[in-house]
Amino acid sequence: MTIFHGYDGTALHYEQLGDGAPLVAIPGGPGMDARYLGTLGGLDARRRLVRLDPRGCGRSAVPADRASCAFGAQAADVEALREHLGAERVDLLGHSAGALTAQRYAAEFPHRVRSLVLVTPVGRAAREPDPAEIAALRAARAAEPWYPDAAAADALLAAGAGDPAALVRRITPFFWGSWNGTARAEAFDPAPVPAAPWMREAFYAGADPGAARPVAAPVLVVAGARDGMIGTAPARLAAALHPDARLVVLPGVGHRPWVEDPAGFAALVGGFLDGGHP
User: Fold this and answer.
1) For a Cys-Cys bond, which of 37, 46, 239, 262 suits 245, CB 3.0-4.6 Å?
2) Residue 219, strand partner residues
3) 224: part of which helix (H) or strand (E)?
4) Residue 276: per-residue pLDDT
5) Which is nearest to 270 in space by CA: 202, 207, 204, 222?
């Protein structure tokens, strides 16, 4: 187990895969164990992939003050990790909710970020899905055999009825481009530590789209064309915010594009990382 200490002394866990310049990866959820990121489609063949378990997540310790789990506060943990690694600058990748922490860190420590990759981000400084887009993406799956049950669960969630955890499990097919055996295995993998039930509220405390700050570093924003969890709207907003950003919407994939198109994802992100950013 590899441990460093966050800005307030909280013991935080990380793992390193591969060799070379560090690519620090921040998981989503919020509250996900970083092991679900795997090798990010094989990016460990191009970079030293550093998977961080944020405070209160995975194998990292729960802080004494849950308020310190807000994504803005966690930017200081990323800086503590960079110092621990002894890296002058890092490439930084944030997935889903983790993209909020990644963007905040890149805005606050611009001289420490070589490049930034935002994978199916939830927004810029808060969750920013377009409800109409989400509804359209889900309705487009109506011919698939799992759709009636998922749609019924979606309606119950919207009405605030039923057990949310069970209902989210039932709507999980919407989050994937193809609901096949690979997606099922990844979505319901029992190995990672489950997210704490209080983490979502703590993580998003103080979230405000108006607080979004542009990042000067080169930015790659990756969206999944069939992402029925967050859609493509937040990715488009993020790409429009950052002055040196490129948006790529990958066809046929959902919220975890490295699982559904590992070769395409690794080629896209790896090519961006190898693009000669100073």
Assistant:
1) 239
2) 116, 245
3) strand 219-224
4) 58
5) 222
Q: How far apart are the first and last CA of the chain?
A: 33
CB atoms within 10 A of CB 191: 7
Which strand (E) or helix (H) includes residue 17? Answer: strand 11-17
Cis-peptide, bond into residue 218, ω within 30° of zero: no
Tokens of 256: 């975890």
Instruction: List the one residue out of 140, 147, 145, 104 whose CA is nearest residue 122.
Output: 104
Cα separation, 227 vs 253, whole angstroms: 7
3-state class (DSSP) for residue 33: coil
pLDDT tens digits, one per residue of 107-129: 999 999 999 999 999 999 999 99
pTM: 0.97
What is the spatial distance between Cα 105 and Cα 69, in angstroms, rounded to a whole number?
Answer: 14
**What pLDDT score does 56 carry?**
97
Nearest C-alpha neighbor of 23 from the set 12, 7, 37: 37
CA distance 100 to 26: 10
pLDDT digits (tens, 9 = 90+) for 212-232: 999 999 999 999 999 999 999
